[in-house]
Amino acid sequence: xxxxxxxxxxxxxxxxxxxxxxxxxxxxxxxxxxxxxxxxxxxxxxxxxxxxxxxxxxxxxxxxxxxxxxxxxxxxxxxxxxxxxxxxxxxxxxxxxxxxxxxxxxxxxxxxxxxxxxxxxxxxxxxxxxxxxxxxxxxxxxxxxxxxxxxxxxxxxxxxxxxxxxxxxxxxxxxxxxxxxxxxxxxxxxxxxxxxxxxxxxxxxxxxxxxxxxxxxxxxxxxxxxxxxxxxxxxxxxxxxxxxxxxxxxxxxxxxxxxxxxxxxxxxxxxxxxxxxxxxxxxxxxxxxxxxxxxxxxxxxxxxxxxxxxxxxxxxxxxxxxxxxxxxxxxxxxxxxxxxxxxxxxxxxxxxxxxxxxxxxxxxxxxxxxxxxxxxxxxxxxxxxxxxxxxxxxxxxxxxxxxxxxxxxxxxxxxxxxxxxxxxxxxxxxxxxxxxxxxxxxxxxx
Length: 446
Fold this sequence. Notes:
The chain is an alpha+beta fold. Among the domains are: 2-77, CATH 2.40.50.100; 224-444, Chloramphenicol Acetyltransferase, CATH 3.30.559.10. The chain has eleven helices and 19 strands. Strands 9, 12, 15, 16, 17, 18 and 19 form a seven-stranded mixed beta sheet that branches. Strands 1-8-6-3 form a four-stranded antiparallel beta sheet, with no helix packed on it. A hairpin with a 4-residue loop joins strand 4 (35-40) and strand 5 (45-49). The longest helix has 18 residues, at 252-269. The radius of gyration is 27 Å and the shape is globular.
């Protein structure tokens, strides 16, 4: 009996996704509810679970294909038995050739033909044109790491399932490359007797190392998430009248408060007291005075919200995502910090859901964690404003006629000038600044 595997519901207004990766191969056993594939939507990656236990009989779509919600992508045979994996067909001379290649080329400077076809190299697919084909077999996170660190995936031994490359494999290879060592060092298997290498195993002229300074290009299809980010940000530029206003804030009071209460806070609530809680509370306080910053435009109408749902930008393997802290204006510091910490953990694990990132009336982006000094963030439609935080650094400022060093942070508020006037934007940012420099305001709602 065969059971169809269908694309699950992906969230409100999402009707299709891209099949990013098959986690199981035809003939492999699967358990009920075990993930067999990963889908990329406009917002998150979603695992497709098996509806029943059995064997993956066949897959009906390829990696990279676009599939609609409810479409059948595979079939599970509930009565079949998983087939045993076929033994690797390696020539008898391969171990000796690998050992010889590892001896003659220990630094991995040139491409090793034996390695290219070895069990450790990712299995290439595509039209056989070379390096560009192999990278298409990598998962999106691994592919991104390969491109960022400029390493050759064919020279890295995969430690994942079925020899697949993992992100950790790529990062380790990048570190070895920076240190001047080999990106991948094949294990030299010592044969029982050491025969002379077969002539057929000698490197072919086509496998010579690329000349130094050669200019190379690589084309990689954008992920669905990256395409969505690009579309939405360009849409914001095309439709909104974007403007950014800046201010700086003395972080001394917040730093002192954290230093004084962080141990008690963590002991009581089980979470560290961070900066984001202060800024979320400050935004909630300022939005009461300037409600247009928390509003949006719908056609020829302005929609005002009596609640504050803060989209907090967090880093994920495939890019920045913005899960929503709902009713942030009604939360205390502990609830805000716990919610944001949970989002950060789930973003790294890739377990955020579409519902986690749906909605939001205002965005806070903290580029300071990456070292940003100043930026002009872009609003997230249909929102009308975004607050950009930046790194804290000691700068000379004048206090009471004296030049003193203070831990300062630049703040940036980008806003839609169609809805928010300059006076309102500046006033809002000043309210945030006042609340951060005097956190007592957050307690007495002033």
